[in-house]
Amino acid sequence: MASNPSIAIIGAGFAGLGQGYYLKKAGIDSFTIYEKAADLGGVWRDNTYPGAACDVPSHLYSFSFEPHYPWSRAYGPQSDILDYLHRVARKYELMRHIRFGREVAGAEFDEARGLWKLRFSDGETAEAQVLISGVGQLHRPAFPEIPGRESFKGRAFHSARWEHDYDFTGKVVASIGTGPSAIQYVPELAKRVKKLYVFQRSPAWCVPKFDRQYTRLERWLLTHWPWTHTLDRIRIFWYAEFVASVIQRNSVLQWLSKPFVYGLAKLLLRLQVKDPELRRKLTPDFPVGCKRLLFSNDWFRTLTQAHVELVTAPITRITETGVITADGQRREVDAIVYGTGFTATQFLAPMDLKGLGGMSLRERWKNGAQAYLGVAVSGFPNFFMLYGPNTNLGIGTIIYMLERQQRYIVRCVTLLRDRGLRYLEVRAEAERAFNEELERRNKKLVYLGGCHSWYLTNGRNTNNWVGYMSEYGWRLWRPRPEAYRLVPA
Predict the structure, then answer these.
(1) If we measure between CA atoms, which residue out of 62, 78, 85 comes closest to residue 11?
(2) pLDDT at 113
(3) Residue 1: per-residue pLDDT
(4) Residues 222 and 68 sit within 8 Å (Cβ to Cβ)
(5) pTM across the whole model
(6) CATH 3.50.50.60 region(s) of the chain?
(7) What is the SS3 assignment for 287-351?
(8) In angstroms, rounded to a whole number, what is the distance separating the alpha carbons of residues 171 and 50?
(9) Model confidence over 185-242: pLDDT tens digits?
C-alpha cells in the first residue's frame, strides 16, 4: 500500500465532506469526492420545498469540528444548512477535491491489484485503493404504486424535486403522504391554495417543535462566549438520548421518557384539534418511535382549517383529473404533491458494487441490507460506508453517527497504509455476529410495533441503530484488527 493511498468518496453531502475533513486531519490528502450533481449539499441541496428545515436543533445538527455558525433559528432552515456546508467546504479546502457531475454507476474490485475500478454514468472510469460511499439513505424519491399515477394531466411532482415555477395560488391541490416533509410544506401550501386535500395512510406521533429566532443577546453570547454554544450542544445531545429511550421497551429510562413524550404529543393534539373525529384520525395506534417522531407547531392547526381536508380513505386510483378513494369519492385537483419519502432501504441504489469473485452487493442485499457496524461488508475489501445499514436514528442526529464512522474509517485507512496491506476485509463471522446481535436487540424495540415504516425491509429493521448514539460512538472508537482479514501487498 502506498504511503498516500488513493481514496474515492461518493457524494458531497455531510457524509462526504466530513470524511474529507477527517482524512485531511490525519494527513491524507489523496482523495477525490465524486458528486453526481452540479453542487454539494446532498439532501439539503435537493429539498427546497416551502418550509424545509431540520427537525434537530442546529447546535447539534452540525459538525463537532465546525460548531460555531450564525444560525438564524434554533432549528436550521434548508438555506442555512446548505450555506453551512458550503462554508465547511471552503474553510477546509475541500472544494478542490470535489468532481461535480460525476455520477458513479458501479464499481468492481480488482483483487490482484487491490484496487477499485469505478465506472461513471458517462462511461468513463477511475481507480482508487479505497472506496467510501457517502450517498446517504434519503436521496432517491419514492413514489407510491397507485394505478393511473402516470395518467394525471395536471402538475405533479415529489417534494424533493419541488417545481418552484408552479403557482399554487387559488389552486385545488392533493398532497399525498404525511411524513416529515409533508408536515413542513403542507402548512405553507395551505396559505396559498383554494382547497387542499391531505391524503394520510397512517398518522404519526407529533410533538411541539421548540423553534424560534435567536435574540440579539443570545447571538452576542454565542459569538463572544463560545462555551455557551458548547453547553447548549451538550444539553441537546443528552436530551435527545433521553427522548430516544422511549424506543427501548421496558428500559428504566423508558419509564420516565414514555409518559413525557406521550404527554407532549397528546397535549399538542388536544390543544390544536378540538374536533373529536379529526383527533381520532390523527391518533396513531402504535407506540411512539415505531415511525419517525414528527416535530411541528402548525401541522395539526393547519388540518383544522376550513379549506383543508384530511382524507384517510385509501387511494384506489389516480385519474387524468384527480384522485379516487376506496369510499368511492372522486376529488378533482389541479396538482398533486408527493410527500412520500425516499427509497431508504435500497442502499447504494442504483449503483452496483462487485467484490471478491465478482460478488454483487445488490444481489447480496436483495432480502435486506446488512453490514458490520453499518460500515463494512464481508467480501468487499477496502470498501466502507457512511450512513449504512442500521445507522439511522429514530430520534437523534445523524451528524454524530457520521462523525464516528468517519473517524473509524480513517483509522482503517491508516491501518491499511501503516501495515503495507493490499487490502483489508471484514470477516464474515464478525459481520454475522454483529447482525445476530441486532436481531436479538430489535425484538426489544418499538420499530417492530406494527406500523408501516421505511425503517423495515421484509419485516426486518435494516435502517435504524438499536441503541443510543453514545453507545454507537464508543463501539466505533477504533477498529479491531481481529475482525478483519489483513492481506499483505
Answers:
(1) 85
(2) 94
(3) 47
(4) yes
(5) 0.95
(6) 7-138+343-488, 141-204+291-341
(7) CCCCCCCEECCCHHHHHCCCCEEEECCCEEEECCCEEEECCCCEEECCEEEECCCECCCCCCCCC
(8) 16
(9) 999 999 999 999 999 999 999 999 999 998 889 888 888 898 898 999 999 999 999 9
Which sign, positive or negative, has the C-alpha torsion 39, 463, 369, 161? Answer: negative
In this prediction, residue 128 carries a pLDDT of 97
* Amino acid sitting at position 423: Y
Residues of the chain with pLDDT under 70: 1-2, 344-345
Question: Which grid coordinates are listed for 54?
Answer: 431540520
Cβ neighbours of residue 385 closer than 8 Å, sequence gap 6 or more: 132, 133, 347, 348, 371, 374, 375, 376, 377, 405
Assigned CATH topology for domain 7-138+343-488? FAD/NAD(P)-binding domain (3.50.50)
Could you tell me the three cell numbers for 227? 462555551
| pLDDT at site 438 | 95
CA-CA distance, 296 to 301, in Å (whole number)? Answer: 10
Fold of 141-204+291-341: FAD/NAD(P)-binding domain (3.50.50)
Q: Are 181 and 341 in contact (CB under 8 A)?
A: yes
State the Cα angle at 265 between 159 and 445, rounded to 5°.
Answer: 85
Cα–Cα distance between 384 and 168 in angstroms, integer?
A: 44
Task: Return d(Cα 435, Cα 369) in angstroms, integer.
Answer: 10
